[in-house]
Amino acid sequence: MTRAPRCGIREGVESTDDTKAKGGKQPIRVVLADDHAEFRRGLAEMLTTDGDIEVIGQADNGAVALELAREALPDVVVLDLAMPVVGGREALELLLGEVSPPPGVVILTMYDRPRLVRELLEMGASAFLAKSASLAEIIAAFKQAYPKRPPPQDSGEVPRAT
To answer: What predicted TM-score, i.e. pTM, was given to this entire model?
Structure first.
């Protein structure tokens, strides 16, 4: 098995996109779960370069990710597969079964066996990426996973002009 390259924190990262310039569009709220703190921090910092994404929480295992998701109701949760306490596979199942509305779930891991990819996507993961994926691929996966939530129900009221 080939190990994915390690991701470090880039210095001097600046945002390349201004959310306010997009008419106030709300960013995709993301929780990152990976037991490698340096990887998690580096990914969070790199994601700040995209004005459409806001990292609202970080977890070092699936149990903490589930707790954060229940409290903060993120749009997307990123899971590594190999984590202590609750691994990514179990966390995926719990997130989709216990968080309402369920977030989109992106699996970001060093394991990339085709059978595993297929299995996790069938379980409900929105995307599966190797940790060697480019930042552009990761951001695209987040945007694909959002909005995973169903649209709001029509109340039947007619909007008033102001």
So the answer is: 0.75
In a domain, 109, yes or no: yes
Q: Where are the beta strands (DSSP E) in 14-142?
A: 28-33, 53-59, 76-79, 104-109, 127-130
Which pLDDT tens digit goes with each residue over 43-68? 999 998 888 899 999 999 999 999 99
Does 76 map to a domain? yes
pLDDT (tens digit per residue) in 123-151: 999 999 999 999 999 999 988 888 644 44
Query: pLDDT value at position 160?
Result: 47
DSSP category for residue 26: P
> Where in the sequence is the domain holding 107, given as residue range(s)?
25-145
Gap between the Cα atoms of 75 and 25, Å rounded: 14
Amino acid at 156: G
What total of structural domains would you count in the chain? Answer: 1
Inside any domain, residue 81: yes
